[in-house]
Write a structure and sequence with these properties.
Structural class: alpha/beta
Radius of gyration: 18 Å
Distance between the termini: 34 Å
Number of domains: 2
CATH superfamily of the largest domain: Response regulator
Shape: globular
Strand content: 5-15%
CATH topology of the largest domain: Rossmann fold
Strand order of the largest sheet: 2-1-3-4-5
CATH architecture of the largest domain: 3-Layer(aba) Sandwich
Number of strands: 5
Order of helices and strands: EHEHEHEHEHHHHHH
């Protein structure tokens, strides 16, 4: 692999650091940069400090992570992710669960090809199969076309606060605590936001916010 000029690293998200994933170990040995392990709990307290990290998930292990760790804030735009060992084509909803996905590798792909993809991702590119790129392009086109111009969307200041909290991956309870309101009030705001933006869920609202709200 060629040496890159970006000081970014890939970190494998795993429930335990004591039993390394054999495939990830192999990829780490082939890569010019070692792949460290990070536990999900660390992401909950460092979601605003991960701009130089790319999070690596093994598909099968990630199913256990999502079951055991609720509200993992991967929908935050601050997270870039890679998914490996994918056994079959995934639904768009499943792909979106991994946040800002930069790379997806099926289980039949060779370690050498995966590492080559890692190199491109570290250098700021995407490495997605054509079918996945088509899925995501179709999804975001639909999201954009379903929403009106931000100039005519009558969002209140509080609703914008809620949207920004959604972007950061906050739960309803976290939003209530941060904004000093009740959880039921948060739910009421979310209902109004979804109605005004013509979206059906949090992921679509976040996609709208990423498209229209200034950082």
């Amino acid at each position: 692999m060629r040496k890159n000029s970006y000081k970014r690293i890939i970190q494998h998200v795993a429930l335990s650091t004591s039993s390394p994933d054999p495939l990830v170990e192999q990829l780490s040995k082939l890569s010019i940069n070692a792949i460290d392990v990070i536990q999900p709990e660390a992401l909950m307290v460092a979601r605003d400090k991960v701009r130089n990290r790319i999070l690596l998930f093994d598909y099968h292990a990630s199913l256990d992570i999502f079951q055991q760790v609720l509200n993992l804030p991967l929908v935050s735009k601050h997270f870039e992710t890679i998914l490996i060992n994918v056994p079959h084509r995934l639904t768009t909803e499943t792909i979106l669960r991994y946040g800002n996905i930069k790379g997806l590798f099926y289980s039949h792909e060779s370690p050498e090809k995966i590492v080559k993809g890692f190199d491109e991702i570290i250098n700021g590119k995407n490495w997605l199969p054509r079918d996945v790129s088509s899925q995501l392009l179709h999804h975001y086109r639909h999201v954009v076309s379903a929403n009106t111009s931000p100039a005519v969307v009558d969002l209140t200041a509080r609703e914008i606060d809620i949207l920004r909290s959604l972007q950061s991956g906050a739960t309803n309870m976290q939003m209530a605590e941060d904004l000093f309101i009740t959880e039921s009030t948060v739910k009421s705001h979310l209902y109004q936001i979804f109605r005004k933006l013509s979206v059906k869920n949090r992921l679509q609202a976040i996609a709208w916010a990423n498209q229209h709200l200034l950082s």
